Every structure is written in structure tokens, then in C-alpha cells.
């Protein structure tokens, strides 16, 4: 500091408040003692960020008890100096679970009523993550959120990480309203499709829907039926609505592979997908007229050897056929796109269509006539004739 | 690099503008990058900054300006796509990596940067630096925060005020 550079005291109050807008509540509040000038800066920052430890073993019992006093005290303190626009929770799952009333009380506090940005981030220590859930650690350690508890009047951005949305205690549809919600982001969450659609239905301005590493479930009953019959009913479908959604991101999400996902998003402009090749379709009279850019990244699917019990080769062929068929159905949904980027983690030959199957798989009126840019990234066999690529290119020309 | 689809009728080379720092260094950048600044965008839309004129920025020195422009150039393609999340040729993860690396700098540079971003009204850069500074005090005691932010140790008078405050806001000091 003595070198004569800019110091923090050179910044105007507006900028200091902007910094404190992102600071955890405890540390933020304690900046009041830095100097007279700082006395009210955090109080007028408009944000309450609750930052709990990732693991309860990191706190003394005295700290542990006081942790749960912070949300209400901080909300009341900031509220006394102006509206609270941002409310965030960050911490280990035990913190959320051990005193669930703390969060409910914070959310129903008068200060939280006009919150514009709300975030729940549940973190998990790495040790627990490597447990029995193997490479899908995001399936565990979640905080269950009740939709009816969320402040909704002015909410514009909702971020959930490692949360699940409770299936009971749902408010009646008429009472659920997020009139200003524009951005919904879920990471490593668990949610029933029906509930997700309820949130979307209640949010007429929802423009950005970002769902990552999330388990999208159908109602349990369906799963039971499937399990009992040991057979996949290929005709199951599930609708994902979004009347105002313009950007949709589905990355590494899971839903049963026998379920076709029907996107009902007439205003969709941008779609990014990463994961297994899903059954996907677009609903509406003129599907995807607005679509500008589609980025897809398809992963190799594990061959299910348990089905049928026949030779592994048959299962492999079945899986490949299905992947090929789903690939073309998926891609052709977006025949209006101007930018199409396709990345495959498996050989491009696996999406190639034999001449005799072309009529069945390739829909003749779905050529990519608006395509400005096509990017394809996939391993291929050097000697093969590149039929798949040719098909895509002929679509684009 | 492909031209943004919603171009301004300019199909040739990207339009360039000149910015002049407080110490008279001239920076030539693409108008699209400079337009991340709300302030500059207005001037550029009015046709300013081209040719030999240049736009003088009396509040920003050359070291800070070059850093600001590094940010703008990196973020311009994403901003050109109407701000739609991920709707860009630039990978989002790559931008995040860039941002993390970008703010890994001396405190005094951070403060100069946020001042410049404030003056030039570059929303994303203001938030990026604000978050970084907020992170610097995360998990620290009041005394550690003082030292981190370069405040001198409290005078006895200040200490007395501190104690009074700590009584009032006990929850922040447990």
C-alpha cells in the first residue's frame, strides 16, 4: 500500500457497497469497525449472504450455535437500512438440515419479501463425495426445498445447487407465482418434472433455464410400473414447458432413457445439450422457428447387457440402432438453426445411415436451409466414406 | 472469427476506435470490444473514436486501460450475442478460467480496475472485481480484514468504538 497505488479507501461508497454486496454477512457486518466511513456501508449493501462452513466438524460448539442466529439478525439489520435484494445460502448439507427452521424463518422474514436474487448452494466435502454413489456423488447430500417457502414477489433469479424440490407441501397452483422470475439455474439437483413444470408455469417471464447434472424424475409410480414389467415402454413422454424460455441448457442431466422429452418452448433461440442421445422432440405448430443456435455434445451410452440376456453383440446393435435413430430425430428437430455444433464422444460412423434406411430415418422436408455455420467434432475411422457427414452437409447446403 | 450475425452493415474489417489514456497512450481496439463500456458505446454510436480523433479517457491511466481492454476483447464475442447465456462461440468455461486468472493481481490494480470499470460503466468487470475483493475477506476475523485491506491498527478511540459495535452486532463476531 505504501507504494502509492490505489487503496480501497480511494473507492467511492457505491463501489464499496458493490463489493460488500458479495461479502458473507458476518464478515460484511464486521467491516463496520474499519472506520467511521464504513459504519453503514454493509448495512446499505442490499445483500445478505449466509456463508456456513462446509462441514460441521470445522466449528466449535459455540460457533455452531451462533451460526443459526446470523440469517435473521443480518436480514433485520440490512432491512432497517433499505431493501434486501440478494439473499444467498452457502454451506454443507448438515448445516441446512440440522436447523431447517432457520432457513424457513429467514425466507419468511419481512426483509426477504422483496428479494430479487436467491441462491441456495449446498456444498459437500470431497471425502463424502467419493462414497457409495461412485461417479455420481451429486445424487446425495441434498437440501430439500419447499416451493411455497420461497419469496416470490420480486424474485428474478433463482439458483439452486444440490437441492431437491419437495414433493409434499406444494402450494396449490393458484398460489404459486413468480411474476418476475427470468433465470432459473439448477445444478446437481433432483426434481420431478411435474414440479419443474409447475415452477415454469408460475413464471411467465422465465427466459433462461439452465439445468446441469440434475436428476429429472417422473412421478415414482411410473418408475414402479416400469420396474415391475422389466420392460421399457418406449412410448412414455414427458413435457418440459417454457412459454417464454429463449435459452435452454441441459447438461449431464439424467432421466429414464425410455422417456421422450417433449420441449414445448415456442420462443427458444439457443439450446445447449450434453449427455446421452435422448429421445427428444419439439412441440408446437411451427417448431423451432426462432432457433438460432444449437450446441450438442453426445456421449457414448453404456450397453445394457441385462436386458434380454442374449449375446452382448445383440445388445450392442440394439443400443447403436437406438442411438442412431435418436440422433437423427434430435438433430432434425432443429432444422431451422443457423448455427449447429455437434460433438460426439463416439465414432461418427455410428450415426451413419445405410442407404436402405435413409427414407425411414431422414425426414425429407427437414433440411437445414438456414444453416450458416456447422461444426462437427467426432472421432472417425480414417478409411470410411463419411456418409453421416455428407448427409448433414447436404442438409445444410 | 465469424462476424456477429446482427452486424451493423459492416461486412469488411471490424470497425476500430482509438482510446487515449490519461498519460496520452493511444490504444486501437475493435469498436465491439470498446462498446462493452456503456459510456464509450454512446460515443461510438455517434461515430466518435474513429480516424485520427480518438476518445480521451482522462481518468484512466495506460496500465489500467490496457488491462480493461484485455477484459473487453475477451468478453466482446459473448456480449455480441445479445448477452444470451452461453450463446457464443467462446466456451463459457474458458471465459471463467480467464476471469479467475484475470483478477489474480495486486490489490492496488484491482482497485484501479474497478474504478475504471465504474467510470466506463462496464457492468461485468465491476462485478468480477467486486466479487474478488469480497472473497479476500471471506472467513476472516475483523482484525484480519483490517490487515488484508491495508487499514492501520485501530487507535484506542477506534478500539472503544469497535467494542461498542461488537456489542450491538454480536452475531457478527461469534
TrEMBL record, chain A:
<protein>
    <recommendedName>
        <fullName>F-box domain-containing protein</fullName>
    </recommendedName>
</protein>
<dbReference type="Pfam" id="PF00646">
    <property type="entry name" value="F-box"/>
</dbReference>
<dbReference type="InterPro" id="IPR055302">
    <property type="entry name" value="F-box_dom-containing"/>
</dbReference>
<dbReference type="InterPro" id="IPR001810">
    <property type="entry name" value="F-box_dom"/>
</dbReference>
<feature type="domain" description="F-box">
    <location>
        <begin position="5"/>
        <end position="41"/>
    </location>
</feature>
<dbReference type="InterPro" id="IPR036047">
    <property type="entry name" value="F-box-like_dom_sf"/>
</dbReference>
<dbReference type="InterPro" id="IPR053781">
    <property type="entry name" value="F-box_AtFBL13-like"/>
</dbReference>
Automatic annotation (TrEMBL), chain B:
<dbReference type="GO" id="GO:0009867">
    <property type="term" value="P:jasmonic acid mediated signaling pathway"/>
</dbReference>
<comment type="pathway">
    <text>Protein modification; protein ubiquitination.</text>
</comment>
<dbReference type="InterPro" id="IPR011333">
    <property type="entry name" value="SKP1/BTB/POZ_sf"/>
</dbReference>
<keyword id="KW-0833">Ubl conjugation pathway</keyword>
<dbReference type="GO" id="GO:0006511">
    <property type="term" value="P:ubiquitin-dependent protein catabolic process"/>
</dbReference>
<protein>
    <recommendedName>
        <fullName>SKP1-like protein</fullName>
    </recommendedName>
</protein>
<comment type="similarity">
    <text>Belongs to the SKP1 family.</text>
</comment>
<dbReference type="Pfam" id="PF01466">
    <property type="entry name" value="Skp1"/>
</dbReference>
<dbReference type="Pfam" id="PF03931">
    <property type="entry name" value="Skp1_POZ"/>
</dbReference>
<dbReference type="InterPro" id="IPR036296">
    <property type="entry name" value="SKP1-like_dim_sf"/>
</dbReference>
<dbReference type="InterPro" id="IPR016897">
    <property type="entry name" value="SKP1"/>
</dbReference>
<dbReference type="GO" id="GO:0016567">
    <property type="term" value="P:protein ubiquitination"/>
</dbReference>
<feature type="domain" description="SKP1 component dimerisation">
    <location>
        <begin position="124"/>
        <end position="163"/>
    </location>
</feature>
<comment type="subunit">
    <text>Part of a SCF (SKP1-cullin-F-box) protein ligase complex.</text>
</comment>
<dbReference type="InterPro" id="IPR016073">
    <property type="entry name" value="Skp1_comp_POZ"/>
</dbReference>
<dbReference type="InterPro" id="IPR016072">
    <property type="entry name" value="Skp1_comp_dimer"/>
</dbReference>
<feature type="domain" description="SKP1 component POZ">
    <location>
        <begin position="16"/>
        <end position="75"/>
    </location>
</feature>
<comment type="function">
    <text>Involved in ubiquitination and subsequent proteasomal degradation of target proteins. Together with CUL1, RBX1 and a F-box protein, it forms a SCF E3 ubiquitin ligase complex. The functional specificity of this complex depends on the type of F-box protein. In the SCF complex, it serves as an adapter that links the F-box protein to CUL1.</text>
</comment>
<dbReference type="InterPro" id="IPR001232">
    <property type="entry name" value="SKP1-like"/>
</dbReference>
